[in-house]
Amino acid sequence: MFFKKLSTIERIYNIGLELEHLDEIFEKITKFLIEFEEDIIKTYASSVLNEITVENIMTKDVLTVPEDMNLEKFEKHIREHKHLGYPVVDENDNILGIVTFNDLKKIGKELFKKFKVKDVMTPESKLVTVSPKTSAADVQKIMWKNDIGRILVVDDKNNLLGIVTKSDLLRASVILLNEMPKITECKHITNFYFYDRDASKINKLADDMVVLLGARGYIVSEKEGYIEILTRDWEPLAKIMKSKNKIEHITITTKTLNLIDEKIAKEVINLIEKYAFEEIIITDHITLINERSSIIRVITDITSFRDSKKTFGTVTIRIDF
């Protein structure tokens, strides 16, 4: 099946937290993403239902009932066939209406022999019908709007082709959700900007960071404008950015959703905390790509204050299908 980008959903979280440690911020971001996943699932299901037409999920061999069947027989018919709704047709299979278990409940059981299907059915003039090419998503909307559980599928001459129910839509959704695309790529970039009246702190932090990462076997390379730290596989891990020979900010790059799941990243954060900067601004960007090329972006922009132990800012999560 071909999936095209159909929609975008976005949620913005305002953060106002009192935190003891920086790593709690990244735990919180991960929790926001898990919560957002519920919206992703709903939107994904709705999106892919747009790709399915009713003819692929409807029941084609439709059980019908005649209009002159009395309600006692109709009740037995329901018990025997286990369906709750049936098209009503004449001797030429022309659609006259639809009758359901709920219609049956409108009449007292003691009167079932006196009343017929035609007395309680929804007549053809009031029926909501769809064509076989109608999308499953549109059928779902029609059901919600009209508060009905089943819809007849007809051709352009109003001939009965099938019936589609809420259960049919649910089964299709379950199948699709079991095929939720898996994340194939994660890129996580975190920038730390530091403010403190003691300007020497950030230089000391940079020196300690180089020593720490060098001691752990990472490759440290000093270049014009920045110091780059690479893994043994020459993958980027961190950059210490300079401006006019002063440390400007520190960047950490990982492939994990939660930054602190990367052991060395957690060590760097612990090192940052050791210096107790008066103010730290964190801009955090996570990009997730799944096997159907949908893109999830998590953008965090927060400021953490040492004295109040409070953190303020926003987390924006967006997915493009």
Automatic annotation (TrEMBL):
PROSITE patterns: CBS. SMART domains: CBS (SM00116). InterPro entries: CBS_dom (IPR000644), CBS_dom_sf (IPR046342), Diverse_CBS-Domain (IPR051257). Residues 58-115, 121-182 form the CBS domain. Keywords: CBS domain, Repeat. Gene3D superfamilies: CBS-domain. It comes from the Archaea. This is CBS domain containing membrane protein.
